[in-house]
Specification:
alpha/beta; eight-stranded mixed β-sheet; globular
Length: 249
Amino acid sequence: MTDVETRHFRGRDGAELAYREIGEGRPVLMLHGFFTTGTVAWLRSGHAARLVERGHRVIMPDMRGHGDSPKSRDPADYPPDVLTDDALALVEHLGLTDYDLGGYSLGARTIIRMLVRGATPRRAAVGGAGFEQLLEASGRGTGFRHVLENLGQHEWGSQDWLLEGFLRKVKGDPAALLLVLETPVDTSREQLAAITVPTLAISGSEDEPEAGRELAATLRRATFVEVPGNHISASSTPELGEAIATWFD
């Protein structure tokens, strides 16, 4: 199932961005996290297959600077909140009106921005979104920045070393990814509290679950679920996929 046709759409600035889709039925747009790709996050993890089995059409873009989407090294191609612009452009490109939204980490925070900016899915699911990362988005990602700026220097077997290995595996471009880190914008508590879309907030048991609970408590119509793992390992657990699929059911 990982060998899925790559399709393209244009972002609002004209960039030709990549996405894949599988299944038939109710559309669900799934946004991956930083460093990874739609294929790795949703297809190889088995999460997409679980959704397809339950009657969903799963749409998985590679966000700007990732996967098969452009990896420009021009800062002008990474204006504030551009990942949200891209995701909203894909919704428009596909003509989605009755759909769901799901995402993890950077993808989850992008979904929150979509909701703030007027996206109207039936339901949303956000995993590993954090809370302070939403309120004060600028300048975040220091751990990833450290990995990207010190390639080849990380201690063997360390988390940074593993992340560098993953970066090479997915053929990530460090220069482009550093520019992606400059794009998030702050979201206020008032903006979060104004979101009316029913939202599932998911956190790993070793990934500051109190932040997920605070997010769920701030959103107007939200439910919190805890799954095993830290920020990285939780993203591929069956429990995460099951929580998302059950929520969309």
